## 1
Amino acid sequence: MLFLDHIYLIPLFPALGAAIMFFLGRKLTKQTVNVVCVGVVVLAFLFACGAVLQYNVWSSNPAPEQFHQPFQKVVYTWLGSGTGHLNFLKQDGSAADFAIDAGYLLDPLSGIWLLFVTGVGMLIHIYSTGYMAHEGGYYRFFGYLNLFMFSMLTLILANNYVLMFVGWEGVGLCSYLLIGFYFHRKSASDAANKAFIVNRIGDAGFIMGMFFIAWYMGSLRYVDVNLAAHSGRFQIGDPIITAATLLLFVGACGKSAQLPLYVWLPDAMEGPTPVSALIHAATMVTAGVYMVARSNALFVLAPTSMKTVAIIGALTAIFAASIGLVQNDIKRVLAYSTVSQLGYMFLALGVGAFAAGVFHVFTHAFFKALLFLGAGSVIHAMSGEQDMRNMGDLAHRIPTTYRTMFIATLAIAGIPPFAGFFSKDEILWQAWTSEGVAYHLLWIIGYATALMTAFYMFRLIFLTFYSKPRMSHEVEHHVHESPASMTGPLVVLAVMSVFAGFLGFPQSLARLVGIHGQTNRFEAYLEPVFAKEAPVMAKEEPGQLAAGEKEEEKTSGTEYLLMILSVGAAGFGWWMAGRSYGDADKGYTEPINAWAPPVYNTLLNKYYVDEGYDYVFTGRRKLGNARLGAMGLGEACSWFDANIVDGAVNASGWLTRAIASLSSWWDKWIIDGIGVNGPAILARALSYPARLLEWGLVQWYALVMTAGLVGFVFYYVYH
Amino acid sequence: MNAMWDISTLHYLVLGAALFLLGVIGVLTRRNVVIVLMSIELILNAVNLNLVAFSRYWQSIHGSLALHGQVFAIFIITDAAAEAAVGLGILIAFFRNKETVNVDEVNLLKW
């Protein structure tokens, strides 16, 4: 039980690395930085593997407190006393103990996240040693990366919402620091600010969601909340749980870049490419998915929230994918692709297919990290060029990068048997089988998104690796394959992109090749986390449970059809992209531009969402003569803040100060003047005559004494 | 006993009073600490004389031997010796600090 009992060490390893970098990094050589920073993440990865293996053994023990239960390790009570003396009032009027643990929880859900975050994180750390080799601020970069790993692992392993929020904010901070890594570039620092500010909106939702949960359930520990949610005390559709879950989902929208808060993620590509791979593709942006999946017990009690999640997810998926169709910056295409894939994950969560959503997170982490790292390798080869219009014909010049990226593209486009096919198909299938016509609409949106995904990914491949070379001669001369420290992680990730999908091999396909029984190991592994929701869901959809053998065969038929359809879509996207960009030369035309220029311009300008936000919220931008912001929300908020809020602050300050002056006057003149100094002055005044008697000559005292003695003697003798 | 030249108790008392007066005047008027100490010895010896004289007077009235006064005088002599030792010690310490033995220059305790 070494690893499980010391599970808190997993986040602490990278924290140690970050601390070394921040305090001593400036003096260390690059070699030392490599050893320390990569070393701690490798250590964290190995420790994580050990912990998950031990957990699997531990939770297969048939004792009821262990069997399929989450493992908890509370290190100490972090907030509150834990003594029962610090209480808050719950919604029903009873008092609940206010105590937040610095506690860690490991169950299949956090285990999966733990493994791919440390695993992909480790590969990206190794990659960064090659990619950042010639950059300034080397130790700073690795310090931030390690700090990010610490925050992300805290987020994953926390056993309550508050500690999760600590990690949540920590990854937000690291994201800000790393997007603005090239801080001398205005666009980078602007992008960092944008990411931070947009995330604040989501975080406000998260905090309010936590308040609702604490107020309604009396605890913020996952275990307690899940227990309360399963207790049957709450109705399905309970308004407070709906509000809480919707607010949590606002938080998830901010962190996981969903409509309408997705705007920061494409701009976040200003950061170094490994950062985009680690934070803005594979790990941090999936935190929202993790949070919703973690709160699954609450979400299933709120069908409205579930529908919202599904609709927002589907809309985001198609919205971002359509923008990705025409972007020219290689990293921006991938950024919109990430937003779109995150939309898929939320679609899965929203239709109740939590395991499918998590499975897509898992496979996406590999192939999207691979795509970003490959893009980084391309940019490296192109001497910093990111515009695909100036690339082309790189396939045989950087073969390893090309091969691995091609595998990732096959995976994300959903070509079997690569990882993306299984996870994406599972999501689409789950969307299709959900009760209600609206879900078929969601399936159509998902299907269209799949088509677009295939198109823009193969567009990227054709423009970058095939077609005619469009770069300048100088750049062309410099094209070279990246060092082994960069291609190594690419190869490992490519292998994972090929095989990760088989963990969730769909049963319908397994039946085809004559295998019966549970082949979707991934789903089976997650069952303890999500299975308890099944009865709740079943109450809502009684038709689901009564699935006989015949029914199964029928649904299998539909499933095969849908699979063939989605593979067809992927192939069609491939073919379309090849036809349009297969031999694009300098000044090639975009097919969408040729077909409908207004559509092309709208997509190229990202539906003018940024401009709209600027116009509505900040007032920085004019639309014609009008500047809504001048009277609009941003300025109104600013005015309200400056005059009402600050006015109230100043007024209370002024009042405090006036009272303080009065109190000071009273203290100075009445208390000190009369009470304290008064007796002293009196004593001093009385001392003057007494002092006259003391002039210091001993003999005078003796004389006075003698005179007094003689006087007394005479008095008594002659009286 | 009625003879004019007999030495009566009154004579002792007058001598004691004279010695006492000399002592007091010495203490009050002389500036030198050594002389002040010597004057204090005079006062003490005046007291001793009185004690012995009254003891003798008491014996002559009651006709029985009484030595209380004499014994007390011996105690006072002892005491005076100790006092002289301490006083001279203080005096030397004082002289080391101030390089003077005049009492009127010792006036640090005044306001």
## 2
Amino acid sequence: MRPATVSTHDQPQPTPSSPHPDVAAVADPVADPVADPVADPVVLCGVGRRFGDQQVLRDLTMEVRSGETLVVIGESGCGKSVTLKLMMSLMRPTSGEVLWDGRSVSELDTSERDRRRLRLGYVFQNSALFDSFDVFENVAFGLRESVMRSGPGGREGLDEAGIRAVVLDRLEEVGLPAEVCSKNPSELSGGMRKRVALARALALEPSVMLYDEPTTGLDPVMTGVINRLIREVPRRRPVTSVVVTHDLSTVRAVADRLVMLEPVSRLAEGEPQAIFSGSIAEALSSSDPRVAAFLQGGSEVLEREAG
Amino acid sequence: MATIPISPPSWSPIHRLGGVVLSAVESIGDIALFSLGVLHQLVLGRPRRRVMLETMYTVGVGSIPVVVVTGVFIGMVLAVQGYSSFHHLGMETRIGSVINASLVKELGPVLAATMLAGRVGSSMAAELGTMRVTEQIDAILALGANPIRQLVVPRFLACFLLIPVLTIVADTVGIIGGWVFSTQALDVNSHFYWAHSRSFVTAFDVTTGLIKSVFFGGAIALVSCYHGFHCQAGAKGVGRAATVSFVTSFVAILALDFFLGLLLDTGYRMAYPAPTSLL
């Protein structure tokens, strides 16, 4: 088993080579001159998260390397979605730190944090489309906010025609026709909702895409479509991706690297929560029975052993 | 979520009492911070025109039918209840002063606010609670917008600005209802009914009611949106948010009514020492 992931803070080292050599060269609308240019885009340093008296994450350390597609796996309830929300700064850790480009999120003031959050796109587990808006307004929402926002990071030059062009372009990218623009989210199938959510996240040209269980509740055909889209997004633009899933077809289809989380309740004292980090091939040959059990298709192996 | 307990709970009476007090203080602090956040966003910018108009339509126009119906009945109930007492004294014509003063100072604003809390406040809490549960509020944040500015500011402004209008509607239909019932069913002389009303109900009474209503509207919006934003997961959580929002709003309305009434009356007596006589 490969040792648990090591933060760049614990062991400074150059960022591993990216599948996209132009990642660092892309003009970033919220570029930070103070940020470390070779730092990993997102790093969790000893992060813990508690809800009331329940500990969900404990001392989790992992980094997301520039340009990679990192897949976070683990059985339901191990804190995968919470990890993603911490990366996005949609919730605060109760201990530890989240770093964006080498800067601690907790040290950013609110406006700076909100501005820098735009570098991350998030596809929610249940799509989280706005019920009161049609598809067009859902995809245009972030753009309109960006236009309204003054100062750095805002898109002051984008007019209504520009917004429409971006929206239609993103919908086309995810394989949806312009006719869906006037539909309400309730009129869409699960797969279409996922694609609209992806188009909405991509509209702001994020440099990091976070996917929370992107194929949950979809049939195998639509699962394949979503997996293909996740794979294609980094080919069209320099994007780092983090995919949280327990769907092994998604793991096989999109992962450059895997991190496996173990529920806190099953961890031994002092054991890191990220019990594995490495490629699929390494995972398949892992000597850790928990990794093997998960990848072989279920927890019944573990249950048999425990029984 | 896989979870482990941090520490075993303690259940002695002292612990329970402490827990209740801490929870209450925490809630008050949370609502205060939430309210400050809303005020901060109010200062920073206006909501989108389309969103504002839609919200105002829902809060204002949508509430008129229920306010009219309840207002009319309250006016007539006051006439029925007041008539028997005044009839024994042979002062039936003075019933108008009691009906109209009660309506413009107390019942009109409280009635409109209660209807707003029940119809709009609960709906706001349920709507925002559903948005919380389905991660739409997180999505707003993820897309670079401020959820308070997007969701709370329009609702707060709509309640704050439109509740005086609803109060005027409640006052007007209540007064008409009381007058029609008094003159048509109870045979009170219309001329004296209005003459006594005019001599007893002052512009200050009307203003007092409208001032109160503005506070009621603000409180309803803040309480409802707060409970929506802090909704627990699931359908049960949304239902609870709607219920707690109404109950808390209603208590807030009554508490504000008492303290504002006390404050305004004291101020009035200090400015105008001679009391108004019913006779």
## 3
Amino acid sequence: MATISTSFSPAPRVPWYVWCAVLGVTSAMIGGQWDISWHRSIGRDTFWTPAHIAIYLCGVLAGLACGYLILATTFGNLSQLRGTAVKMWGFEAPLGAFIAAWGGLAMLASAPFDDWWHSAYGLDVKILSPPHVLLILGNLAVNTGTLILILGMMNRARAEFRNKLEWLFLYIGGVVLVGLMLMIMEFSWHSLMHNGIYYRVVCMVVPLVLAGVARASEKRWAATTVAAVYWLFWAGMGWILPLFPAEPKLGPVYHQVTQFVPPEFPMLLFIPALALDLLWSRTRDWNLWKKSAVSGLVFLAALIAVQWPFSSFLQLPEARNWFFHTNIFDYNARRAWMHYTFFKPDAPTTFLLEMCMAAAAAMVTVRLGFAWGDWMRRVRR
Amino acid sequence: MSRLTVVFLLAAASALAHVGSPDVYYDGQAGPYRLLVTIRTPSVIPGVAEIEVRSAANDVETVHIVPTPLLSEKSRSNGEATFAPVPDLAQRSKDDPQFFTGSLWMMTSGSWQVHVTAEGPQGKGELSVPVPALSSSTKKMQGPIGLVLAALGLLLLVGAVSIVGAGVREGQLEPGLAPDPARVRRARWVMAATAVFVLAMAALGGLWWNSEAGDYDKHIYKPLLMSATLDNGGRLILHLTDPGWARWRKVDDLVPDHNHLMHLYVISLPEMDKVWHLHPDRVDAGVFAKDLPPMPGGRYALYGDIVHADGLPETLVTEISLPEVPGKPLEGDDATGTGPPISKADPNSTVAQLADGSRMIWEREPGPLHAKRAMFFRFRLEDADGKPAHDMELYMGMPGHAAFVRTDRSVFAHVHPSGSVPMAALGLTQNAGDGGAAMAGMSGMAGMAGMDHSGMMQALPPEISFPYGFPKPGDYRIYVQAKRGGKVETGIFDARVEK
């Protein structure tokens, strides 16, 4: 390989543009939960609701930080970063900056698309529509870009600075997990937790993040930390949102609402994550395929062991309090939905099939996560 | 008895509650305040309805508006209940203090009501206006927004490929190193594979989009289909069938409106010079029949107005070609009228000469008529010697009925002095207990001053007015019916409407 000039040494402090990107992804994470709660309690929104602004602020902050980073590395006073930059379309910047800038653009492009979608097909209130998926993809790209921006520095850094960046990396891993959990929210109501589809969908998403981030990190409890970030954020929103008053601004109103409706109590994912961390600390020498297969099964088994009984608990009167908040319903919740019952159980063959698919999905996503983690460990720019 | 089946054609069904006239007009009394309410319904549901409220006098200070679903008697007796969301404060116009506007969300297809609360020095007054919330169309992406989004989409696709390429080529290089040719080659292959992947994803996204659009298309309102036949005895048979739209819409849950399950307008084609207002009887589920009066052979347009149990009105449209029908005399509330052929229409004429020498006069304000503008159409009846008619009566409980028909028949609206809402739906808003309003509103309707609450008749004024707004420019024919001296009079007028 040819050598080109390098004068780069990692700064001892986390640069402002990284903090700016971290702030952006945090803003979108809060905005996403806030917006969903807004739709469940107030109902009506415009583009300019505070929740929407918090979401799109992510695109703006990522765009500003990464735009600056790209331009300053290419033309300006960050030219010393060129040695740790990648080149694209004549510009030079860390790889994460390009990914986050792409995500910011996708998020901003989703705004007029969503607006047009509403005028063409109605003001949909579902999470998964094409413009919403573009928004979520953009947000995931900003999250990933921020992750890689941190990774590039982390993988080059030593000692204390690396340690600081590791924690930031795990936090962003948690943010990525929150984003994905928002995306599958329609499949993860606690009333669905005795149906196979819930386990299949969770296994299609969660192991990827846990395995990927843990593989790229040197922290022993990386997966547990990522799951804990998700849990603390989700539970925190569940405790904070109902403190604020809200009332429905569109009908039909089947249930009187006086406060912001919280998200459902978070899944206890830190327990399956802990099981994975323990497993991985004892199987360092295993073949990755074997390790993925066992990890997938361990994850699913731990998930069932935790969420099956926990969701039963959430149906009990003991959970109808401020902590578990199962006593708060959407304004459009019909009486039939408020009976604290599970969805119709699967037929035995359906359930078995779903569980087999869940196990297979968990094995595959762990393996994909390992591959992604290995790639991330090698990122230098 | 063998049936003589005649040719019938199903007309294009671009209807809402009326045909091609989705906006709702209502003139009523909110306590002490008389209000003209216009509701411009959205073309997609969920969507935003625009509400306009005009007070007849400068005595209203604030107007609040709120929408709620209108439930059938059965739903209410089953315990289904909804609460009202927080009412919106309508904005008062700076230029016109008697004019208030607001926007309301209609979240589900079906029968809704907009509850209006007016407040002023005389206290608070309320009324409710039934509104059918129905999707009428979806949009195709065109114009600048399409170009901008296509450009952004292309930029994102190419950007994704380039980012992956940059990542593979240089992302894992130690600082300061330049990529070797093998790495560059590998990056090119990965970029090619990524391009295929993102194009496949874009294609899948397109399929998903089409599938979503197809789902929305299924929500577009389709009125019940009506087919017409004539049996040997000169009896018109109407069959109502459901083309499949919403499971909750039934063929046989109709409620009477002015004592009739169906109000059928029969208009001669192509000259639109003869009109019959008939009331077929239900003979079976989704089947109506009517002995026709004497009618010349020819082609006729049929518009059947019905109201479902939840207050949702529909206008069912068809055509029929008839041989000469000897027919039976008109009976009950049935009525007929004749005017000049449409080919000789005079949109400037404001006088309709009636059979007994009396006249119906359109008290039209000077100047052109404009589309989408709520206004009162006022008509006066005079006897043969030019004096105001003194023997006016209610016709099916109303001082008058008017049908506004665009000459290309893309618009049909059956309007009363209270507006374009059916009385049966208005009754439901009253029963819902949140209008008290509805009937109180009726007592204040234009032309209703002569009817007291007990239904005792006093002399009705010789003038009738109808609140309405033409939905689009074009030539219209207006059929106005009022009853005097025991006979229903029909005046036919023409209007040219500008933008």
## 4
Amino acid sequence: MFSLQDKHLAEEIVSRIQKEDVRLRFMHVCGTHQDTLMKSGLDSVLQSCGVTIGQGPGCPVCVTTPREIEEILVLARKRKTIATFGDMIRVPGETASLQQLKADGCDVRTVYSIDDAVQLAEKNPTKEVVFMAVGFETTAPTTASVLLRDPPLNFSVLSCHRVIPPALHALLEMGEIKIDGFIEPGHVSTIIGLQPYESLSSIYHIPQVVAGFEPLDLLMAVWMLVRQVKKGDATVENEYTRAVKPEGNIKAQQAMNKVFTQADVKWRGFPVLPKSGLLLRKKYETYDARKKYEDELREIKEKEFPDPVGCLCGEVLRGLISSRDCPLFGGQCTPDSPVGPCMVSVEGSCTIEYRYAKKK
Amino acid sequence: MCLAIPGKIVSLDATKQFATVDYGGGTHRQANVTLVEVRLGDYVLVHAGFAIQVIEENEAKETLKLFRQMLAFQGEG
């Protein structure tokens, strides 16, 4: 019912793109898009049509900084109960990952939803439960919704939420690589709508298409971008009309605005990006793990945490190299023994590349 | 992580904060519906345990129709 399949239509779109005879490089910022491209084989089909598509910083776990990882590791060692999404647990810190601390006896739980973490706090009033909140605009409203409903006071949030548009601005501002168009993330856009992308098109004259996650969605998005390039247009188009309304989800936006304030934060592989992070407003500081455990976190306040030695996740996240260009890829760094987060997360381009390269 | 799965709301709890969502194939799971305005029978996209948008049942069909129209239009242009 929700599946978007039409073989003849797909063939038609491919032949249209081919006829345009282009040499273009587009970027998407979503691991789920990358997964669709690789799983369906569309990446090579499009390459043969002259269109290369790379993954930018579209993996929330991957752009989480070494400092944020150390913050949660410190709290785990200080006997807090840590709850977070599955991928986060395996990201290596300076000396260990949450998973390794769990094996050493620390209390680390994988949750499917922030609601599970709140329930954990409700059922265990003597435990201090810290939820490491990772994710872009798709996930941030879920954290906001929970904090708006007065969760128990033994629950707190280490917010590592980030918003996508500032990272897109940074990529174009830095100008390290040529990008002919952006395929914008469908589910982030379900929340934020189309307006937040518009300044990118007007400042940098870049075509953008919000896309869904089926192969046909991505093919159509590429064709729409190619048409824009050919016509010299630079607008924000919506391919994913079945889930993305131009205004987005206003209720979710309101929840986010009530709870979070946009702050300048660093992303892995990027410098500090203005207004790119979502930190808890003062009103919610009772639930802000960074305030609540300020004393515990003081030991790492002045410390620098560099990226792992030899790891090129930063270059991968900025789209400068593909995963297999990293000397560690598939040798020293594999999903079983990851060096950087792009090899940990199911949304990381290194994991995705590794998974499908093995099947080829 | 930005994966979202469509499903149908088959029951709503008294607080209207949680719903049971049918994902097909016998899979039912509870979802938080505080970020959307929903009624029984609505289809929603669910991400990390939260419904993030209400979607129309026949939207996929409509999308295909729209694509065909766009291609025909562009083809003539």
